[in-house]
């Protein structure tokens, strides 16, 4: 089998631990021969992400808190040392725990802005930091992708302000695709079904959501992180060259069901 990402360099933001969807994506990218660059969110995660990076054969690991303009500027400068950049994976979201448990109508201005800053605006900032490196190649172009969830378009109990942030994120995907398309840069989102990661642990009734998907999805099962990783490979590879501005569902078909 030819390796789908041979000769490509991919930057992956959002690895926190081995359960992270970003880690599964990195594993798929490694299998397909990509040169992998990782970022982590601040000193607290440095050691663990460096260790995970070593297990993935990552070439470099950068500190980047996406709420900090200085960090994004530094990242953009550090990327100049790279010969090329072909793919960027944005796998980052955050809302305050209290906004994911009380009624949505109680969402504070600060809570709303925090969720949108980290979970939606950061894609715009990351795209701006990375697009110049993707465009500056003998054959310009690349693929930017992010992770989203069905709660952007349907009311999912407790997803609340994250639903509004994911709706914004998906709109950002379309506008970025419009801006960057002429540079042969594609921008897409993967809408993953629920997966038990750190961001899902502690979410009330998460196991019930997994059971509902198993009972009702067309495939009668949940998705695996590896299935999300392999879809990311498709988008990052030349196989995905005609796809931009879109949301690809990797959810065992759950989103098509009505009853
Ligand atoms: P995770 O906790 O492993 O990943 C979230 C990441 O966001 C972490 O690496 C964390 O460090 C990073 N992050 C948060 N604030 C940051 C900041 N200020 N700067 C830089 N990084 C920051 O959980 P995950 O489930 O792998 O989530 C990854 C993405 O997948 C998120 O966008 C999430 O919404 C999305 N998603 C998750 C599921 C699921 O069920 N787990 C389903 C669909 C989509
Ligand atoms: O996007 C996500 C996770 C989003 C998330 C989760 C947390 C929990 C811990 C963002 N911020 C935080 N902040 C915390 O303090 N998913 C798609 C997984 C998820 O989270 C839910 C879900 C699903 C599915 C929250 C409520 C309801 C359903």
Task: Please describe what this structure looks like.
The protein has 259 residues and is an alpha/beta fold. It has a single domain (9-249), classed as 3-Layer(aba) Sandwich (Rossmann fold). Helix content is 40%, strand content 15%. It has seven helices and seven strands. It has helices at 21-31, 46-55, 69-79, 109-135, 160-180, 206-216, 225-236, and strands spanning 9-13, 35-40, 60-63, 87-90, 142-148, 185-192, 247-250. Strands 3-2-1-4-5-6-7 form a seven-stranded parallel β-sheet, with helices on both faces. Helix 1 packs across helix 7 (225-236). The protein is globular, with a radius of gyration of 17 Å. The relative contact order is 0.15. It binds nicotinamide-adenine-dinucleotide (NAD) and ligand 0WE. Ligand 0WE binds at residues 93-95, 97, 100, 149, 156, 158-159, 162, 194, 199-200, 202-203, 209.
State the end-to-end CA separation. Answer: 40 Å
Helix/strand structural class: alpha/beta
Biggest sheet record: 7 strands, parallel
Number of domains: 1
CATH class reads Alpha Beta
Gyration radius over CA = 17 Å
Shape annotation: globular
By DSSP, the count of extended strands is 7
CATH third-tier fold name: Rossmann fold
**What is the H level of CATH, i.e. the homologous superfamily?**
NAD(P)-binding Rossmann-like Domain
CATH architecture: 3-Layer(aba) Sandwich
Compute the number of helices.
7
Mean of residue pLDDT values: 97
Q: Estimate percent helicity.
A: 25-40%
Strand percentage lies at 5-15%
Q: Strand-and-helix sequence, N→C?
A: EHEHEHEHEHEHHE
Low-confidence stretches: none
Small molecules in complex: nicotinamide-adenine-dinucleotide, ligand 0WE
């Amino acid at each position: 089998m030819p390796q789908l990402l041979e000769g490509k360099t991919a930057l992956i933001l959002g690895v926190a631990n081995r359960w992270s969807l970003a880690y599964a994506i990195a594993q798929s990218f490694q299998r397909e021969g990509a040169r992998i660059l990782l970022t982590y969110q601040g000193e607290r995660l440095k050691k663990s992400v460096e260790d995970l990076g070593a297990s993935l054969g990552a070439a470099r690991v950068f500190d980047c808190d996406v709420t900090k303009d200085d960090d994004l500027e530094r990242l953009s400068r550090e990327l100049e040392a790279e010969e090329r950049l072909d793919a960027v994976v944005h796998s980052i979201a955050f809302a305050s725990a209290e906004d994911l448990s009380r009624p949505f109508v109680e969402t504070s201005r600060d809570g709303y802005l925090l969720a949108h800053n980290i979970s939606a605006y950061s894609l715009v900032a990351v795209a701006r930091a990375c697009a110049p490196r993707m465009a500056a190649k003998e054959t310009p172009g690349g693929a930017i992708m992010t992770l989203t969830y069905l709660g952007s378009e349907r009311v999912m109990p407790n997803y609340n302000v994250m639903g509004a942030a994911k709706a914004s994120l998906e709109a950002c995907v379309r506008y970025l695709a419009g801006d960057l398309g002429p540079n042969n840069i594609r921008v897409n989102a993967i809408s993953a079904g629920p997966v038990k990661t750190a961001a899902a642990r502690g979410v009330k009734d998460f196991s019930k959501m997994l059971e509902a998907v198993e009972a009702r999805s067309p495939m009668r099962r949940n998705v695996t992180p590896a299935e999300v990783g392999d879809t990311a490979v498709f988008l990052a590879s030349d196989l995905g060259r005609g796809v931009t501005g879109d949301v690809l569902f990797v959810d065992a078909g759950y989103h098509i069901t009505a009853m």
